## 1
Amino acid sequence: MAVKDTAVEKAAWTRKDLIGIEELTREEVELVLDTAPQFVAVSERQSGIKKVPLLQGRLVVNWFFEASTRTRTSFELAAKRLTADTLTMNASVSSAKKGESLHDTLANIEAMHSDIVVLRHSYAGAARMLAEHHASSVINAGDGYHEHPTQALLDAFTIRGHIRRRKDDPEAGLDGVRVAIIGDIAHSRVARSNIYCLTKLGAHVTICGPRTLLPVEGERMGINVTTDLREAIRDADVVYALRIQLERQQKCLFPSLREYIRLYRVDKEALEDAPPNVLIMHPGPINRDIELATELADGPQSAVLEQVSNGVAIRMAVMHLLLNKS
Ligand code: CP
């Protein structure tokens, strides 16, 4: 069955790669969001046949140098639902272990005619470096502290869906929507991509956490910055808790986990002053009852698993746009 390209009348996609949200225009972000609903529909088909042949015969390579559950499986599923061939390269047993460079490895993969390479790497800039020197479309699946663009796109898509249902307006966007991002902002590629994405779409973003975990450039990014959790979430439409990277504690960036929980855990008590229908989000993996209380993560206001479902549709949209353009 053909999938209708409803969104391409609004804007055109011309990029070879998706490296970060920072360089995208609002129109490009909206194009991805507007392309995704048709792929949600594919995943929810009554027939159970969750496939469209938009990437038939194409090769998508998943290349992850860091642990991942959601992003890796989501890209693999997205590629399969587009009928692409998929190849997963396990970095721990690849020739990178023998000292082969990223360029040489990708040149060898390209000799087997790859079309898309999905890369997660601890080096901020790895995806861009490969994109600039290779013909394959490179998708950044998270590079160091830099960006995680598809996470931000699926988050914006999830928020937009809730706002549209709340307002009963199928055209509503994110203009004026208030999003509070809580936790380790300074070391979070998810936070960075979300700040770029949400502010481009007209949302008001507040970041909140211990001073040592807030980026120095916060105010320059045109967002509110506070260390007071209750202040951050008082008017929020969305509260987005970030994973506390426990390894940071060894660097003494916050005094103790107990202290962090007391001041920054998103729980029912913290939400006392927040609007009653505030949406709870988290990119995963969750440290339960550290940055987010279990009762909220699993509660009726939680969009955590919806984020994961939407991730497949967003990644299908991105791969479709990259290879089929408009
Ligand atoms: N949100 C996210 O990137 O999760 P994974 O690390 O499991 O991919």
## 2
Amino acid sequence: MGGGSNMLLLNDIDRLVVHINTKGKEVLKKDKNHIWIKVAAGENWHEFVLWCLENNYGGVENLALIPGNVGTAPIQNIGAYGVEVKDVIVDVHTIEIATRKETIFSNSECKFGYRDSIFKNLQKGKYIITDVSFKLTTNNHIIHDNYGAIRSKLAEKRIKKHCIASVADAVISIRTEKLPDPKKIGNSGSFFKNPIISKSDFNKLKEKYPDIPNYSVNSNTELVKLAAGWLIDQCEFKGKRFGDAGVHKNQALVLVNYGNATGKEILDLAYKIQETVKQKFGVTLEMEVNLIS
Ligand code: EPU
């Protein structure tokens, strides 16, 4: 277990639980424009992002304020506002549980995908991630400010200079407004993945719902990604509460626990949402959160 932020416990766990809490950052090498850093799995992700900003290391600023730890970031390839952690990962250091052998996975061996990696499917539960190495920029930072919400936030703050610090600042403001803090109200971020459907299915939906948000999938013209939050919102779940299980008022993709909802009650709400979205739009929502029982 890392930060525990992307899991739903369905019952109490009556077996050994290992919480990875290792700390440390090691600079591996530098060149004119880059730095290579190895970071221990137990480091808090957002604190690592803040440390990078303090040192003027670019590449992770769009991923500010994502809950969880450095070691769990590659498992689901955390992503936000046009950047995914795979973009800056060099390799992932692990221990194979069965053999206790140290194994390093290169970026390509991690088989990163949208909220996905080898550690989430093929090799699930087989490796403990001990460290992650990153390649970050020290000069000539690449500024990812194309995401609509970032551009509007920077415009709203009248910030003309788009640098890594101002992008991080915008991301922090957007997330604070939209996403509930798991320390204050139980949640696991986006409960579902944004669904990817065929272009022909999308065209049919677009006829009926001309405003349906949609995104391209890499450069594949046959596939379209939809916004699960919009689909759930259209089914009028946003802000609804069923006992202590609810759908967040500012972001329908986030399920929240107002206090004493059991894991099972949250899961029942997730099933209800999946069923309603399927009926209304014919689209299947896949859960992003790890169910633990
Ligand atoms: N929308 C609604 N109603 C809602 C929520 C969203 O209509 O309640 C619409 C928005 O207006 C927008 C579209 O849906 O047109 C997309 O919304 P947003 O920009 O908030 O992003 P998202 O697709 O809902 C994804 C990630 C988030 C990430 C943001 C920003 C997934 C599953 N979620 O959300 O990641 O922060 O983009 O990049 O891909 C997470 O994975 O836990 C997470 C929070």
## 3
Amino acid sequence: MARCRVWCSPVTLPLSWRGELTTSGVRYSSSMPAVRQSYPESTSVVRPFNEIPGLWKNGVANLYNFWKLDGFRNLHRIMANNFNTFGPIYREKIGYYESVNIINPEDAAILFKAEGYYPKRLKVEPWTSYRDYRNHKYGVLLKDGEDWRSNRVILNKEVISPKVLGNFVPLLDEVGQDFVARVHKKIERSGQNKWTTDLSHELFKYALESVSSVLYGERLGLMLDYIDPDAQHFIDCITVMFKTTSPMLYIPPGLLRRVGAKVWRDHVEAWDGIFSQADRCIQNIYRRLRQETGTSNKYPGVLASLLMLDKLSIEDIKASVTELMAGGVDTTSITLLWTLYELARHPNLQEELRAEVAAARAETQGDIQEMLRRVPLVKGALKETLRLHPVAVSLQRYITEDIIIQNYHIPSGTLVQLGLYAMGRDPKVFLRPEQYQPSRWLRTESHYFRSLGFGFGPRQCLGRRIAETEMQLFLIHMLENFRVEKQRQVEVQSTFELILLPEKPIVLTVKPLQSSR
Ligand code: 2DC
């Protein structure tokens, strides 16, 4: 095997974890300043960038191997394997894209301290190419530099600051109530006092209804029996958009466009569907806003707030609202599906969570916002889901200053990736990582740079607070109404389609708590 030859070469001698180097593994460099590393057990100097283990010499050959390993769907497992082979840091070059990969929380801290004033992550070229192709503006997700910063500062106030959370809660709570009412109806109709199904489609609708109600301050009506076919089309387009992104990650989309590749055409069609639906929603609100006198004191939603604030151009607002709407469907719905899957596999834990929710409900007499402050285990469950089943396989930054990680020198400008999926399953980072234990997030064990499901710092997920609140409320309502059970003992793994998804359908059974027939 070609790969094995490279792995066994002297350059990539397997290094042990955490810099506990054997003397033979230590190299001295004359070109580097003699900086003492912080590991007391070692006395080596900082090693140069070129000695970082890994496969970074032949990008084309590596791309070929990657493709042979079905890397487009296995990225998370390949990364985890690479850490096993090379240790806690490795360099990699796939096609034209080069990176340094790390796994330890302490190293993540070093990385994020070097992200600079304009943090920059890996550019998802298919996404920027589409916007260039159709002449759409980039939203805050795709912007960089000062343009990113000025937009982000304004969006933060309307989307992620604790101040606005109170506006979101009643809107999202209503969607949660409608969701459980819908499930009750489905159970009744089944005539079996239970409902066995792959919930993903219902969850997609829940997620889109939730994010839309916050963005637009009004309901789309997706919890009804008959739903707008355009809304369903929007949901389908997002799935296709993600699926067609990953094969284009390592091949320049410009090239694929010129040769008229099917994957590029499908990608364009998917984004076209996403943009036209978002545009319809935005136009609706925009028109209404111009007609109304604005006397109502009801919260009008993120879009109307931004328009009235008048600090961003309409084009900038549209671009970022479209991204929030598209980014808020698969991400939260899949995280909820994984959570239900884990709760079905852990019935005792499910009861424990139910008890917490019941106590919080009793203590707060229906003050839902106060209730959210009293469900730490529910919040822990979501963190635990994102640890084992993160949406993003990695977090990346182009560092803006030289750093030293695992005693290797990494020059400013390098793309450094934290293997989030690999970190979540690393026994050196999490005690018994294979176990789903929400309570680990309540205990005193270190949480330092370990809860990174939404990223970190000023470039973290803008939709974070919407997503968290939407998911917490969902779990509260589900736990108060239903018991979730699994079919058989089925292990479901992740597959990479730009985001990580369950590799096969997850079928669950939902039963009402009070068996009223
Ligand atoms: C994919 O190697 C793997 O939140 C690549 O809601 C590196 C990479 C870069 C950016 C990441 C992406 C990965 C996964 C999906 C992410 C994306 C940034 C934002 C996006 C994490 C890890 C996501 C899902 C957004 C998407 C919004 C979009 C639909 C408008």
## 4
Amino acid sequence: MNQHVSWAEAGAAETRGGDVVRIVDLKRQFGGTAAVDGISLSVRKGEILGIIGRSGAGKSTLIRCLNGLERPDEGQIFVEGREITGLGERDLQPLRRRIGMIFQHFNLLSAKTVEENVALPLKIEGRSKAERLARAAELLDLVGLADKARAYPASLSGGQKQRVGIARALAARPALLLSDEATSALDPETTRSILSLLKDINQRLGLTILLITHEMEVIRTVADRVAVIDAGKIVEEGQVWSVFADPQADVTRSLLAGIRPQLPEAIAARLGKAGREAILRVDVAGEAARRPLLQELATAIPGRFRLVHGGIDHIQGEPVGTLFVGVQTTDGRVAEIIDFLNARDTRVEVLGHVSDDV
Ligand code: ADP
């Protein structure tokens, strides 16, 4: 693989520092529906920006504005500093090629071989056959499919098809890879392998990626920054680990509900208003998750407490986690323990009480 890094590195070098895409106050209405309602965002060179939202949030409309298939009513889009809004079809074409796309259903041409699919963007650019085949071989090597050059898409697995999609999207050395729900049709294991390929290409070659998804797990695994959209607006934006640690918007919390730690059902079902043990949910992140919090607590307050459930995850190398702590109420120190934890940059919530052992 390494002998092929050179061209891509050259491409990466020129895209480091600054914004690849800048969107300013973009609006697009359909009848009475504001599909995109004043979105501003930038994709910085070399980063993976995730955009997440539920169905109907406005993701597709945003993508269609970005690749020129949809005209916004208001606002501007800049690709590598050049405004694309208002351009005619002919002027749009070369700018459109600066964005490589991968799709949920791969969109490969079934009558063409893998290498022909990969080389297609170069054929459109009028490159020679020798150049096209050399680049296709280079890219298939990059995505781990060197032995499938002559195969047809029908003989490939979903994951292999998406690897071909990625190779094709990179063929014309785009400034940005736009991933539109690219792992939504894949099983969890294949999803992980595709996301790890994207992360690898991003880190080794500095490729800038804009990733659209409705799955927080995808954001968690691969993105550096996340923008949450709802009803055509960005409702929350930030570093992935900090949004996971302390989500602000209701829609973010609801998108995170499935993957944030929860008290096991059997215990949650037994929670009451009073009992001999209070069950606390303690969210920790960053510095608070690095310090010996439970040891400090045990030293400072001699009440009985225990870890019921939970753990620490690592997102972008930052610890983010939730500890479910059972605190003996008969010691009369629950309020003191909560104050102690709150003073140490954690978020504490009393979920309820249990009387018997859980
Ligand atoms: P998402 O991709 O996040 O599911 P969309 O961009 O497809 O969201 O849709 C955003 C909103 O705009 C939805 O309410 C949708 O019904 C509406 N919408 C999108 N495209 C059209 C269209 N061509 N005509 C009418 N309404 C549309």
